[in-house]
Design goal:
One of its GO terms (molecular function) is transaminase activity. This protein is an alpha/beta fold and 383 residues long. It contains 16 helices and twelve strands. It is globular, with a radius of gyration of 21 Å. The termini are far apart.
């Protein structure tokens, strides 16, 4: 059988999580929280399950969840999307990203990927007949070199994947970034697929600026988000997409044949849970404490790093210590130090190795402290 994705195997996240399990290591590799959800949210799931909300909901999601999500968007981003025509509930942000690409990418189209990049973007482009065009982010801070993006535009350019807060680096887009992108696509039929799953996880007073908050960008952007990342329930695989009516119409044509709809009682639970804004407005402080704890411990190791500005990831550089391949070091750390992480070379199309590793600090404090204690023994495996 001829593969449609011959160059793709099992994701590094699955590989490293399995290795961590096999080795009994602390898993700071795959991006999922190491703690449970708010019991109030879990009780709401039970409530709606027992009340019989277990059959198919509307294809676009229950209206109550779409309405409260629109209100949340107005509160946090300053604009009110139409719940009926612009908001769709999906089975995880990965589905939203794929459906958005399917809605606009045609055979032969070129689609920009700013790398290092999350690994689901390229398959979404390729499977829809498009060609990924890779534009590197600035190595010093992972900001966008807008001149490089501009120079890469051709008559075939159809879309661009963007991601803020950024995985793996934690870079948070600025107002200048939004303005630069708006200027770049002005007068061109170029769509934007915006991965904003870490929208509520920003630090040091930085504010997440959704592309939907920019009036000009809003007209050409699919904003893709995740309730799972926000509320520590990644296994629920519930996300959303906000886009203008015409784009949403095309998006839903794809969505209805991918998953059709999303698990019913959890939609009702989230709709009620979101009625109290403090439940998501408090998230930056919650994660900042974890980030601060983690970088405080990292400062006592031999790694070099810039504190993450967003997401629940922290990058570290070890190039001043060793020229060992990042994947080799990640595997050896898992086996010998019993701490698992992700080699950042996997986020590059050419597997470029800058001797950088990614840690997930969305874990319990005791687990982070134990991992940091083990990381102080890094020189033992670099010797």
């Amino acid at each position: 059988m001829e593969s449609k994705l011959p160059h793709i195997g099992t994701t590094i996240f699955t590989v490293m999580s399995k290795l961590a399990s096999d080795e009994g290591a602390i898993n700071l590799s795959q991006g999922f929280p190491g703690f449970g959800a708010d019991p109030n949210l879990l009780e709401l799931v039970g409530k709606y399950t027992m009340k019989g909300f277990n059959q198919y909901p509307p294809m676009a999601g229950i209206l109550g969840l779409r309405q409260i999500l629109a209100e949340k968007t107005q509160l946090t981003q300053g604009y009110l999307p139409d719940p009926e025509r612009e908001v769709t509930i999906v089975s995880g942000a990965t589905e939203a990203l794929f459906a958005a690409a399917s809605a606009v990418v045609r055979r032969g189209d070129e689609v920009f990927v700013l790398e290092p990049a999350y690994d689901s973007y390229e398959p979404a482009i390729t499977l829809n007949g498009g060609k990924p065009v890779y534009v590197p982010l600035e190595e010093k801070d992972f900001s966008v070199n807008w001149q490089s993006v501009r120079d890469a535009i051709t008559e075939k350019t159809r879309a661009i994947f963007v991601n803020s807060p950024h995985n793996p680096s934690g870079y948070v887009w600025t107002k200048s970034d939004l303005d630069e992108l708006a200027d770049l696509i002005r007068g061109r039929e170029i769509f934007v697929i915006s991965d904003e799953v870490y929208e509520h996880i920003t630090f040091d007073g930085k504010k997440h600026l959704s592309l939907g908050s920019h009036k000009e960008l809003r007209e050409k952007t699919f904003v893709c988000g995740s309730f799972g990342k926000t509320f520590h329930v990644t296994g629920w695989k519930i996300g959303y997409c906000i886009a203008p009516p015409e784009m949403t119409t095309e998006f839903r044509k794809i969505h209805q044949y991918l998953t059709f709809t999303t698990v019913t009682p959890m939609q009702y639970a989230l709709a009620e849970y979101l009625e109290k804004p403090e439940r998501y407005l408090s998230i930056p402080d919650f994660y900042q404490k974890k980030r601060d704890l983690f970088i405080s411990g990292l400062s006592q190791t031999d790694f070099q790093f810039r504190p993450s500005s967003g997401s629940f990831f922290q990058l570290v550089n070890f190039g001043h210590l060793s020229k060992m391949a990042d994947r080799e070091l990640a595997e050896r750390m898992t086996k010998e130090l019993k701490v698992a992480c992700i080699p950042v070379s996997v986020f590059y199309s050419d597997k470029k190795d800058n001797q950088v590793l990614r840690f997930c600090f969305a874990k319990e404090e005791a687990e982070l402290l134990e991992a940091l204690d083990r990381l102080r023994d890094l020189n033992r495996i670099l010797a």
